[in-house]
Amino acid sequence: MIQQIDYFVIAPPLVLAVVAGLVLLLDAFLPVRPHTKTLLGLTTLAGVVLSLGFVIAQMAGRGGQTFCVPTDKALCSFVADGFTLVFAGLVLVAAVVVILMSMTELAGGGIPVGEWYFLLLCTLVGAVTLPASRDLIMLVVALELVSLPVFALTALKRYDGRSSEAAVKLFVVSVVSTAIMLFGVSLLYGIAGTVYLSRLSAVFSGQIPAPGTALPDQGLPAVVTVGVVLVVAGFAFKIAAVPFHSWAADVYQGAPLPVAALLSVISKATGFAGLILILVTALAGQAATWTPIIAIISALTMTAGNLLAMRQRSAVRLLAWSSVAQSGYILAPLAIGTQAAIGASTAYLVIYAAMNLGAFAVVMLVSRTAPRNELDDYRGLVHRSRVAGVALAFCLVCLAGLPPGLAGLFAKVFVFREIVEGGTGWLALVMAVNTVIGLYYYAVWTARLFTPAAGMAPAVHRPPPAIWSAMGLAVAAAILFSIAPQLVLDVTALSTR
Question: Which GO terms of the molecular function aspect are on file (predicted)?
Answer without folding.
Answer: NADH dehydrogenase (quinone) (non-electrogenic) activity; NADH dehydrogenase (ubiquinone) activity; quinone binding
